[in-house]
Specification:
409 residues, alpha/beta, four-stranded mixed beta sheet, binds pyridoxal-5'-phosphate
Length: 409
Amino acid sequence: MTQMPTVTRQDFDSVMVPNYNPAAVIPVRGQGSRVWDQDNREYVDLAGGIAVSVLGHCHPAMVQALQAQSERLWHLSNVMTNEPAIRLAQKLVAATFADRVYFCNSGAEANEAAFKLARRYASDHFGPDKHEIISFQQAFHGRTLFTVSVGGQPKYTEGFGPVPQGLHHIPYNDLDALKAVIGERTCAVVMEPMQGEGGIVPANEAFIQGVRALCDEHNALLIFDEVQTGMGRTGHLYAYQAYDVVPDILSSAKGLGGGFPVGAMLTSEKVAASFVVGTHGSTYGGNPLACSVAEAVLDQVNTPTLLDGVRERSEWLRSRLEAIAADTGAFKEIRGMGLLIGAEVAEPFAGQARDFLNAALEAGVMVLVAGPNVVRFAPALNIPQADLELGLQRFAEGVKKVVGQAAAA
Ligand SMILES: *Cc1c(COP(=O)(O)O)cnc(C)c1O
């Protein structure tokens, strides 16, 4: 099924804004955890479109849901509601702590809604002085001006100021740092239960429980950004379910649509009440196509078989990566939860995570990085064992090449 390339990677540079630097190859189709490029070269996908493609590419249940809805109704507006949106909201409410759902189209939008709601709720109940948001260094919450300012990577706001005010950034997994800044002006603390873009850094349990207690003490809302950790990624539908801690607001996107753009903000009835008619909105939020696909994804993911399978695959993947680390000396730590795993490069390879990604792609496997020092794996949650094995075999080849080149130099 070779295709004549009508466009090339070079064309990208002449028509696109230069904010990305994509790989040299252009994938044209995918099936399950395999992807083919313009030259019909095949890759094992251990990246999952950055933790998005939870069911792999073109899963039949998703294709069926999209096709069926595409012949029924594409779009209304928020002047009307629609059946798929209500059904998806019912299922999310049934499966989580939440009583209420707000739909949008991306992770940044889900967080934008969460931060605005937290401020509005505090303003309603405690007055406008209670507007400060505390977040964590290295955190990632999206690229809108508000979300990127709450995020903890200063390079992402460079040159975009003035940024929104009333934001504090403190070290992650450091309860004393939180104690020092939280107070009566704090309206919310926002955290990823495991930092994704920041390098695959899980929260320790005492920390996450301590954050909840401090929020309660100071009437601050706890927001969990589960855009990356949600939809089964950690072996639980949402990562909070692995801890004994319930947030007030949770944001979900990435895996929620399994590749179709959709985001959601989940919250309690009490907090939701502050988003009265007219306070917030989105043209496409709750789009019937998006919600139909997400409903199919949720039906597939939220099953014991799939979630148990994530934990089994996780153990296998981690032990294989430990073996590669021991064999090559390329990595000093393997960490993560479920099928969101990071391999931190050893000292001689500091800053070179991307070299491993490039070598892996050469060898026929797609992986990710999370910052300059961590190679990240976020495969489909249903990836067949054979694909996982082939992917890791190819990854090992790539690693050996990088390590060999370093030795020769
Ligand atoms: C990817 C990500 C976002 C942003 O999601 P977009 O859909 O790109 O806007 C926000 N938070 C976390 C934790 C993410 O991983």
